[in-house]
Amino acid sequence: MLITETGVPEKFIAEDDWGGQVMHRLDDGWCAAVDRETMLCTIYENRPLICREFEMGGYECLDERT
Questions:
Q1: pLDDT tens for each residue of 10-51
Q2: What is the largest CA-CA distance in the chain?
Q3: Nearest to residue 43, comparing CAs of 19, 11, 15?
Q4: Residue 45 CB contacts under 8 Å (≥ 6 apart), including other chains
Q5: Three-class SS of 1-63
Q6: Which residue has the higher pLDDT, 3 or 33?
């Protein structure tokens, strides 16, 4: 859920069932901002707070990728 303003481009923002702003997910569940060839975030400098709190390669990060 997007709870702070970080400059995430509108094309990567979706609305959840309760009206909250969330990152847009593709049909397969992957975040729309992830480049599937490089596995890097295409909006890294403007990524939401929740992404900033994940330690790259940490347990939560790896759990989300599976």
A1: 999 999 999 999 999 999 989 999 999 998 999 999 999 888
A2: 33
A3: 11
A4: 7
A5: CCCCCCCCCHHHEEECCCCCEEECECCCCCECCEECCCCEECCHHHCCHHHHHCCCCCHHHHH
A6: 33
